[in-house]
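Memo to structure team: turn this sequence into structure tokens by end of day. - J.P.
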Amino acid sequence: MSEELKQLVKRYNDAYEASKLLPELKARILPLIKAQNLQRIKFNFGSHSIGYHSYNDYDGVTQKMIKETLEMYYPNINKDEFMKRLLSSRRQKQTETLRIIPVKTTN
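Reply from structure team:
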């Protein structure tokens, strides 16, 4: 087994172990962002930024997949109106998370 492979597997394992901390950290960060009214602030880290993100999560519906399917098979249908009618009958919950946004660079 090559030394390069060992190092890559070790780095992968380190990243995996560190990723286990994400749910706990997110659970601690979100209330602080809301308490300090910083929902519109982005925290910049060079190649990316991290910011608060809130959206309606409809029970059992993947909106992007449905819209893409409609575009593919029913291009003449009004996708927004269809989604509005579909989602009005679904349970929803407000979901809060952190979003990582790549920084756009100009060359």
